[in-house]
Amino acid sequence: MCTRSIKECLTLQCKSLIKHDSSLIGLSVMRNNYDIKLKVNEGEISRIIFNEALKLFTEYSIVDVVVVGAGPSGLTAAYYLAKEGGLKTLVLERNLGVGGGIRGGGMLLPVALVEEEAMEIVREVKCSYSRVAESLYAVNPIELTCKIAAEAISQGAKILTGVYVEDVIYRVEKGKHIIRGVVIQWTPIIECGWHVDPLNIYSKAVIDATGHEAEIVSLVKKKLKLNEISLIGEKSMWASEGERLVVEKTGKLISGLYVAGMAVAEVHGLPRMGPLLGGMLLSGKRVAEIILEDLKRGEL
Ligand code: 48F
């Protein structure tokens, strides 16, 4: 006659089941290995986050370069500024994620094309690709975006999302306007239409990498009434010409203000080019080179 209680019998049955069913054994091992033991309470979680964020915002209130826009040109610029120049670089992006206009590939199809001339950048950030035509390669735009962003961060650049650049800081010296940083607000505050005073980031240079809208150049032209800045507006599609000119025209507009990516097309009246990324990547690299040269020459 069995002298065990029902509870003991059930425990024994479970143990033997676990012993004989390898998937259950795996599960029990996993549970033990991943047994999270949080050693701080909820208030301490907030305190740590406040402290860490405060350290970042304190350190990055004054930087070398502010990049406005985390699209392909802005991210590439940040990567090279940090990597080649060791510059204190801050990317500000109004959306919650990075990637700008390339995230949707061509018509939401997960493919973008890169010309041979820009493939060095794709290879450098270890993005996968395939050759699809002579001197032309296909990439996954999400992978490319994530890898450039990750490499930029690894090189020391910081990226803040959900931050809207609503104005610039300026000075006038010897009759010439100089841009010396940006005025920022949380994007949801802008979207709510609340009146909350913004904060500022002081910098030696600002790059407008805001894409088709050229938002920073546009507000500088409007608010500072600078006739020397043109804003011709992007032209219709001519892929090869757009790609060539967008790199050629990348650069400085006035002291402290630089333009890269599709914003260059908006400023200089260049043709659009669709889901071709070579021009965007090379424009980002070029603007970083120009800023580094200006710094060397003491022009910043
Ligand atoms: O548009 P976007 O990707 O600019 P890009 O680097 O690349 C253009 C390509 O995506 C695509 C193309 C050419 O046909 O291949 O169009 O020139 O990225 C611009 C980023 O800037 C952000 C915006 O949310 C986007 O992610 N942005 C725009 N205005 C502001 C801003 C602002 N005022 N403050 C912060 N971020």
What does this structure look like?
It is a single chain. This protein is α/β, with parallel strands linked by helices. It contains eleven helices and 13 strands. The longest helix has 19 residues, at 278-296. It is globular, with a radius of gyration of 26 Å. The mean pLDDT is 92. Ligand 48F is lined by residues 68-74, 92-95, 100-102, 164-165, 209-211, 213, 215, 261-263, 272-275, 277, 280.
In short, what is this structure?
44% of the residues lie in helices and 24% in strands. It is of the alpha/beta class and 300 residues long.
Our estimate of the beta-strand percent is 15-25%
Looking at how many chains there are and whether they match, the oligomeric state comes to single chain
Secondary-structure class: alpha/beta
Determine the N-to-C terminus distance.
93 Å
- The number of helical segments is 11
Ligand species: ligand 48F
**Biggest beta sheet summary:** 8 strands, mixed
Sequence of secondary-structure elements: HHHEHEEHEEHEEEHEHEHEEHEH
* Secondary structure: number of strands: 13
Low-confidence stretches: none
Percent helix = 40-55%
How much is the average pLDDT? 92
Outline: globular
What's the gyration radius in Å?
Answer: 26 Å
